[in-house]
Request: fold
Amino acid sequence: MAEKILEINNLTVSFDGFKALNNLNFSMEPGELRVIIGPNGAGKTTFLDVITGKTKPTIGTVAFKGKDLRKFSEHQVALLGIGRKFQTPRIYLNLTTRENFEIACNRNKNIFSTLFAKIPSQEKQTIAGLLETVGLTAKADMKAALLSHGEKQRLEIGMLVAQSPDLLLVDEPVAGLTDEETENVGSLLLALAESHSIVVIEHDMEFVRQIAKQVTVLHEGTVLCEGNFEEVQNDPRVIEVYLGSQEEHE
Ligand code: ADP
Ligand code: MG
Reply:
Protein backbone atom coordinates (compact mmCIF):
# COMPACT_ATOMS: atom_id res chain seq x y z
CA MET A 1 0.00 0.00 0.00
CA ALA A 2 1.28 3.48 -0.82
CA GLU A 3 2.53 5.59 2.05
CA LYS A 4 0.03 8.12 3.37
CA ILE A 5 0.73 11.71 2.43
CA LEU A 6 -0.48 12.69 5.92
CA GLU A 7 -0.88 10.52 8.95
CA ILE A 8 -1.86 12.08 12.25
CA ASN A 9 -2.12 10.00 15.41
CA ASN A 10 -3.58 10.93 18.81
CA LEU A 11 -2.82 14.58 18.25
CA THR A 12 -3.46 16.94 21.15
CA VAL A 13 -2.48 20.62 21.21
CA SER A 14 -2.95 22.42 24.52
CA PHE A 15 -2.78 26.16 25.04
CA ASP A 16 -2.41 26.71 28.79
CA GLY A 17 -4.42 23.57 29.41
CA PHE A 18 -7.11 24.34 26.82
CA LYS A 19 -7.17 21.60 24.19
CA ALA A 20 -7.52 23.28 20.80
CA LEU A 21 -6.98 19.80 19.31
CA ASN A 22 -7.97 16.79 21.35
CA ASN A 23 -6.84 13.26 20.50
CA LEU A 24 -7.33 13.84 16.77
CA ASN A 25 -6.70 11.06 14.24
CA PHE A 26 -6.55 11.77 10.52
CA SER A 27 -4.99 10.31 7.42
CA MET A 28 -4.95 11.09 3.75
CA GLU A 29 -3.83 9.21 0.64
CA PRO A 30 -1.46 10.81 -1.89
CA GLY A 31 -3.43 12.66 -4.58
CA GLU A 32 -6.49 13.16 -2.39
CA LEU A 33 -8.47 16.41 -2.23
CA ARG A 34 -9.84 16.65 1.31
CA VAL A 35 -12.20 19.33 2.56
CA ILE A 36 -12.30 20.12 6.27
CA ILE A 37 -15.31 21.86 7.75
CA GLY A 38 -16.37 22.65 11.29
CA PRO A 39 -17.81 25.48 13.35
CA ASN A 40 -15.71 28.41 14.55
CA GLY A 41 -13.25 27.35 17.20
CA ALA A 42 -13.33 23.70 16.09
CA GLY A 43 -9.54 23.73 15.67
CA LYS A 44 -9.24 23.98 11.87
CA THR A 45 -6.54 26.65 11.78
CA THR A 46 -4.63 24.99 14.63
CA PHE A 47 -4.78 21.77 12.59
CA LEU A 48 -3.01 23.53 9.68
CA ASP A 49 -0.56 25.20 12.10
CA VAL A 50 0.54 21.79 13.36
CA ILE A 51 0.97 20.39 9.84
CA THR A 52 3.15 23.36 8.81
CA GLY A 53 5.31 23.19 11.95
CA LYS A 54 4.12 26.55 13.28
CA THR A 55 2.67 24.82 16.36
CA LYS A 56 4.12 21.65 17.87
CA PRO A 57 1.97 18.76 19.11
CA THR A 58 1.60 18.57 22.90
CA ILE A 59 0.89 14.86 22.46
CA GLY A 60 0.82 12.69 19.34
CA THR A 61 2.45 12.67 15.94
CA VAL A 62 2.08 14.27 12.54
CA ALA A 63 3.81 12.42 9.70
CA PHE A 64 4.19 13.69 6.12
CA LYS A 65 5.08 10.91 3.66
CA GLY A 66 6.19 8.83 6.62
CA LYS A 67 8.40 11.54 8.15
CA ASP A 68 7.63 12.71 11.68
CA LEU A 69 7.41 16.51 11.39
CA ARG A 70 8.12 17.27 15.05
CA LYS A 71 11.80 17.97 14.56
CA PHE A 72 11.36 20.30 11.59
CA SER A 73 10.99 24.11 11.68
CA GLU A 74 8.25 25.86 9.69
CA HIS A 75 10.78 26.73 7.01
CA GLN A 76 12.05 23.16 6.79
CA VAL A 77 8.50 21.81 6.52
CA ALA A 78 7.90 24.11 3.54
CA LEU A 79 11.07 22.78 1.90
CA LEU A 80 9.89 19.21 2.48
CA GLY A 81 6.98 20.01 0.14
CA ILE A 82 4.09 21.45 2.15
CA GLY A 83 2.75 24.76 0.83
CA ARG A 84 0.21 26.85 2.72
CA LYS A 85 -2.15 29.46 1.43
CA PHE A 86 -3.34 31.85 4.12
CA GLN A 87 -6.77 33.47 4.14
CA THR A 88 -5.55 36.90 3.01
CA PRO A 89 -3.51 36.81 -0.19
CA ARG A 90 0.22 37.39 0.33
CA ILE A 91 1.16 38.79 -3.05
CA TYR A 92 3.19 41.80 -4.22
CA LEU A 93 0.52 44.35 -5.15
CA ASN A 94 2.92 46.73 -6.92
CA LEU A 95 4.21 44.03 -9.22
CA THR A 96 2.46 42.50 -12.20
CA THR A 97 0.90 39.05 -12.15
CA ARG A 98 3.84 37.73 -14.19
CA GLU A 99 6.42 39.32 -11.88
CA ASN A 100 4.73 37.74 -8.89
CA PHE A 101 5.17 34.35 -10.57
CA GLU A 102 8.83 35.15 -11.39
CA ILE A 103 9.46 35.75 -7.71
CA ALA A 104 7.56 32.63 -6.67
CA CYS A 105 9.73 30.57 -9.04
CA ASN A 106 12.86 32.06 -7.44
CA ARG A 107 12.05 32.09 -3.75
CA ASN A 108 15.68 31.49 -2.87
CA LYS A 109 16.95 34.54 -4.80
CA ASN A 110 16.36 38.14 -3.86
CA ILE A 111 13.57 40.13 -5.42
CA PHE A 112 15.78 42.66 -7.19
CA SER A 113 18.02 40.14 -8.90
CA THR A 114 14.88 38.24 -9.96
CA LEU A 115 13.24 41.29 -11.50
CA PHE A 116 16.32 42.59 -13.31
CA ALA A 117 17.82 39.30 -14.45
CA LYS A 118 17.13 37.83 -17.84
CA ILE A 119 14.53 35.09 -17.38
CA PRO A 120 15.65 31.73 -18.82
CA SER A 121 13.32 30.37 -21.52
CA GLN A 122 12.44 27.31 -19.49
CA GLU A 123 11.22 29.52 -16.67
CA LYS A 124 9.24 31.64 -19.14
CA GLN A 125 7.45 28.47 -20.18
CA THR A 126 6.78 27.49 -16.59
CA ILE A 127 5.31 30.92 -15.94
CA ALA A 128 3.20 30.81 -19.11
CA GLY A 129 1.88 27.45 -17.89
CA LEU A 130 1.08 28.87 -14.45
CA LEU A 131 -0.71 31.88 -15.95
CA GLU A 132 -2.78 29.50 -18.06
CA THR A 133 -3.55 27.20 -15.11
CA VAL A 134 -4.86 30.01 -12.93
CA GLY A 135 -6.66 31.68 -15.85
CA LEU A 136 -4.70 34.94 -15.70
CA THR A 137 -2.90 34.94 -19.06
CA ALA A 138 -4.83 38.00 -20.21
CA LYS A 139 -3.85 39.83 -17.01
CA ALA A 140 -0.17 38.81 -16.96
CA ASP A 141 1.08 42.38 -17.26
CA MET A 142 -1.45 44.02 -15.00
CA LYS A 143 -0.40 45.17 -11.53
CA ALA A 144 -1.65 42.67 -8.97
CA ALA A 145 -3.32 45.54 -7.07
CA LEU A 146 -5.79 45.85 -9.95
CA LEU A 147 -6.88 42.21 -9.90
CA SER A 148 -10.24 41.29 -8.39
CA HIS A 149 -10.27 39.57 -5.01
CA GLY A 150 -10.87 36.18 -6.68
CA GLU A 151 -8.06 36.76 -9.19
CA LYS A 152 -5.71 37.60 -6.32
CA GLN A 153 -6.66 34.33 -4.62
CA ARG A 154 -5.95 32.43 -7.84
CA LEU A 155 -2.63 34.28 -8.27
CA GLU A 156 -1.54 33.27 -4.79
CA ILE A 157 -2.59 29.66 -5.31
CA GLY A 158 -0.50 29.72 -8.51
CA MET A 159 2.46 31.15 -6.59
CA LEU A 160 2.26 28.23 -4.19
CA VAL A 161 2.11 25.77 -7.07
CA ALA A 162 5.23 27.42 -8.54
CA GLN A 163 7.17 26.00 -5.61
CA SER A 164 6.02 22.47 -6.57
CA PRO A 165 4.68 21.35 -3.21
CA ASP A 166 3.36 17.80 -2.85
CA LEU A 167 0.76 18.90 -0.35
CA LEU A 168 -1.19 22.15 -0.63
CA LEU A 169 -3.00 23.54 2.42
CA VAL A 170 -5.64 26.14 1.63
CA ASP A 171 -7.46 28.08 4.36
CA GLU A 172 -10.90 29.47 3.37
CA PRO A 173 -10.05 30.41 -0.23
CA VAL A 174 -13.50 31.71 -1.19
CA ALA A 175 -14.40 33.85 1.84
CA GLY A 176 -15.78 37.13 0.50
CA LEU A 177 -15.77 36.08 -3.17
CA THR A 178 -18.63 36.49 -5.64
CA ASP A 179 -20.38 33.32 -6.83
CA GLU A 180 -18.55 33.44 -10.15
CA GLU A 181 -15.14 33.89 -8.52
CA THR A 182 -15.96 31.10 -6.06
CA GLU A 183 -16.66 28.77 -8.94
CA ASN A 184 -13.39 29.76 -10.66
CA VAL A 185 -11.38 29.01 -7.52
CA GLY A 186 -13.23 25.69 -7.21
CA SER A 187 -12.38 24.72 -10.79
CA LEU A 188 -8.76 25.68 -10.21
CA LEU A 189 -8.51 23.50 -7.09
CA LEU A 190 -10.14 20.59 -8.93
CA ALA A 191 -7.61 20.98 -11.76
CA LEU A 192 -4.71 21.12 -9.29
CA ALA A 193 -6.06 18.07 -7.48
CA GLU A 194 -5.13 16.00 -10.52
CA SER A 195 -1.45 16.44 -9.68
CA HIS A 196 -1.35 17.47 -5.99
CA SER A 197 -2.65 16.38 -2.62
CA ILE A 198 -4.79 19.20 -1.24
CA VAL A 199 -6.41 20.06 2.09
CA VAL A 200 -9.03 22.82 1.88
CA ILE A 201 -10.66 24.39 4.91
CA GLU A 202 -13.97 25.96 4.03
CA HIS A 203 -17.25 27.30 5.39
CA ASP A 204 -19.12 27.91 2.16
CA MET A 205 -21.32 24.81 1.70
CA GLU A 206 -22.05 25.42 -2.00
CA PHE A 207 -18.33 25.52 -2.60
CA VAL A 208 -17.81 22.36 -0.55
CA ARG A 209 -20.49 20.66 -2.66
CA GLN A 210 -18.69 21.77 -5.86
CA ILE A 211 -15.27 20.40 -4.97
CA ALA A 212 -15.65 17.83 -2.21
CA LYS A 213 -14.92 14.15 -2.56
CA GLN A 214 -14.10 13.31 1.05
CA VAL A 215 -15.12 15.69 3.84
CA THR A 216 -13.79 15.65 7.42
CA VAL A 217 -15.84 17.44 10.07
CA LEU A 218 -13.93 18.84 13.06
CA HIS A 219 -15.66 19.68 16.31
CA GLU A 220 -14.08 20.62 19.63
CA GLY A 221 -10.62 19.71 18.40
CA THR A 222 -11.43 16.23 17.19
CA VAL A 223 -12.86 14.45 14.13
CA LEU A 224 -16.65 14.26 14.45
CA CYS A 225 -17.17 12.31 11.22
CA GLU A 226 -15.90 11.74 7.70
CA GLY A 227 -17.58 10.84 4.45
CA ASN A 228 -18.67 12.19 1.10
CA PHE A 229 -20.65 15.43 0.95
CA GLU A 230 -24.05 13.71 1.06
CA GLU A 231 -23.11 11.50 4.01
CA VAL A 232 -21.72 14.37 6.02
CA GLN A 233 -24.60 16.67 5.14
CA ASN A 234 -27.12 14.08 6.34
CA ASP A 235 -25.27 13.05 9.51
CA PRO A 236 -27.43 14.15 12.46
CA ARG A 237 -24.35 14.99 14.55
CA VAL A 238 -23.12 17.35 11.84
CA ILE A 239 -26.52 18.96 11.44
CA GLU A 240 -26.54 19.52 15.18
CA VAL A 241 -23.11 21.11 15.55
CA TYR A 242 -22.60 22.80 12.23
CA LEU A 243 -25.07 22.73 9.36
CA GLY A 244 -28.03 23.22 11.68
CA SER A 245 -26.61 26.30 13.29
CA GLN A 246 -25.66 27.70 9.89
CA GLU A 247 -29.14 27.25 8.42
CA GLU A 248 -30.60 29.24 11.27
CA HIS A 249 -28.63 32.21 9.99
CA GLU A 250 -29.88 31.98 6.41
P1 ADP B 1 -11.03 27.38 13.88
O1 ADP B 1 -9.98 27.72 12.86
O2 ADP B 1 -11.71 26.09 13.62
O3 ADP B 1 -12.03 28.48 14.04
P2 ADP B 1 -8.84 27.57 15.78
O4 ADP B 1 -7.91 26.47 15.45
O5 ADP B 1 -8.45 28.92 15.35
O6 ADP B 1 -10.31 27.20 15.31
O7 ADP B 1 -9.02 27.61 17.37
C1 ADP B 1 -9.44 26.51 18.13
C2 ADP B 1 -9.54 26.93 19.58
O8 ADP B 1 -8.23 27.12 20.13
C3 ADP B 1 -10.28 28.22 19.79
O9 ADP B 1 -11.07 28.11 20.97
C4 ADP B 1 -9.18 29.24 19.98
O10 ADP B 1 -9.61 30.31 20.79
C5 ADP B 1 -8.08 28.43 20.64
N1 ADP B 1 -6.74 28.90 20.30
C6 ADP B 1 -6.19 28.90 19.05
N2 ADP B 1 -4.93 29.38 19.08
C7 ADP B 1 -4.66 29.68 20.39
C8 ADP B 1 -3.52 30.21 21.10
N3 ADP B 1 -2.39 30.51 20.44
N4 ADP B 1 -3.64 30.38 22.42
C9 ADP B 1 -4.77 30.07 23.09
N5 ADP B 1 -5.88 29.56 22.50
C10 ADP B 1 -5.83 29.37 21.16
MG1 MG C 1 -9.72 29.35 11.48
In short: The domain at 6-248 is CATH 3.40.50.300 (Rossmann fold). The pocket of magnesium ion (ligand 2) is lined by residues 44-45 (CB under 6 Å).
